[in-house]
Each structure stands twice: as C-alpha cells, then as structure tokens.
Design goal:
By secondary structure, the chain is mainly beta. About 0% of the residues lie in helices and about 60% in strands. It has no helices and 11 strands. Strands 2, 4, 5, 6, 9, 10 and 11 form a 7-stranded mixed beta sheet that branches. Strands 1-3-8-7 form a 4-stranded antiparallel beta sheet, with no helix packed on it.
C-alpha cells in the first residue's frame, strides 16, 4: 500500500559527493519522521540521519558535518546529501518513513529496498 522508491547511489571516490533520494507513494494520510539507515554485511543496520515532519534533524556522529538530510513534503521525498565521503561510508543505504495510511489508525514504518553506495578509489 505504501512504496518507497530510492534513486541515486553508486560509486564515488573518497572525498567526493553523492546524493540519494527516496519518494514515498501510496494511500498516504501523512508522513511523520523520515530517516536514512545504512548497513554493511554482518553488521547491524545503523541510523544515519532522521528528519521530523517539522524539519528537525539528527545525525549519527560518524556523518555529522558531512551529510545533510532534507525533505520535500510536497513530493513526499526525503534526500540525503553526502559530502566528503569516506571508504567507511560504503554500505547499503535504506530509506525509512513513518507513514500514517488511510486504512490504519496508527503510523507504521515503511522501508525502501536499499541502494548501494560504494566509496572507493
């Protein structure tokens, strides 16, 4: 009923920049928090950044000052601008949205399929 479609991702050199986006579609009543997670094989999924419906942001210490999360409420889209990328940023990046749908009384978390970001020379 709710779909998250990611765009972007790919290969970038250390020190470079990359931007990924995630558009939410479906029977949406409202979207609360939107988040980006990342995961490498064998490790727990890590919260990278979050943004509330009002635009308040939080970042993992490892990306603070380098990454910027933003959202376009009119487009139901969340973005992650990644600058000064490091090899350790290599991961599958997942978008997450806390969505209130028309057919359920409470908001639920929905996930994108993930997009690979590889930082390598």
């Amino acid at each position: 009923q709710v779909q998250l479609v990611e765009s972007g991702g790919g290969l970038v050199q250390p020190g470079g920049s990359l931007s990924v986006s995630c558009a939410v579609s479906g029977s949406i009543l409202s979207i609360h928090a939107m988040r980006w997670y990342r995961q490498v094989p064998g490790k727990e999924r890590e919260l990278v950044a979050s943004i509330t419906s009002g635009g308040s942001t939080n970042y993992a210490d490892s990306v603070k000052g380098r990454f910027t999360i933003s959202r376009d409420n009119a487009k139901n889209t969340v973005y992650l601008q990644m600058n000064s990328l490091k090899a350790e940023d290599t991961a599958v990046y997942y978008c997450n949205a806390e969505v209130k749908v028309r057919t359920f009384f409470a908001a639920r978390d929905y996930w994108g399929q993930g997009t690979q970001v590889t930082v390598s020379s």
